[in-house]
Amino acid sequence: MKAAIIAGCVVLSVLSAPGAHAKSIKRECQIKLDAEQTKITNADEIKACIKGFWPTISDPKKGQWVINYPPPAEYDHPFAGILMIQRLSMDEITKICLKRRTGCALVVNTDRGVYIDHRFGNRAACIIIAANNADLQTQHALFKDVLRHETAHCNGWAQNHPGMEGKYEWVEK
Ligand SMILES: [Zn+2]
Fold this sequence. Notes:
The chain has six helices and seven strands. The chain has helices at 2-16, 20-23, 43-53, 90-97, 133-138, 143-154, and strands spanning 28-31, 63-68, 82-88, 103-109, 115-116, 125-131, 166-172. The longest helix is centred in the first third of the chain and has 15 residues, at 2-16. The model is unreliable at 1-20 (pLDDT under 50). The site of zinc ion has 3 residues, from helix 6. Residues 149, 153, 161 line the site of zinc ion (ZN).
């Protein structure tokens, strides 16, 4: 009897939830990058794609378009070693990550002394440098997405991002 009442409540809440259907729409626009992966090459295509989605968004203030560069499934898992995360401004990041970007990953190996190398070594630890929230906002990036991307580098995803599919996506706040 109790089970039947609970089941009844679940059905009712699904039917009455406002906007439940609208939320299920996946709004994504594919990003294409140049060979150096520094420039977006299909800006017009993205603009048109985003424009096409606006009529499906009832309240633009309730969400935002963010840029996400998720890793391939192979590297998309938690890091097994010791993970250290440091938030910095993008100006500070430039001094460590060599390029102005939202973050980078430094893989620490300890099998031949302590050294940082992305390709070889025991991957005992990884230091993820990620921009602070204010700077991420200017780059239309979310911390959780940067963390996921950089964790994949900790897991051995090459610096030139093989298999990466960048996208703009609408995220509800
Ligand atoms: Zn990367």
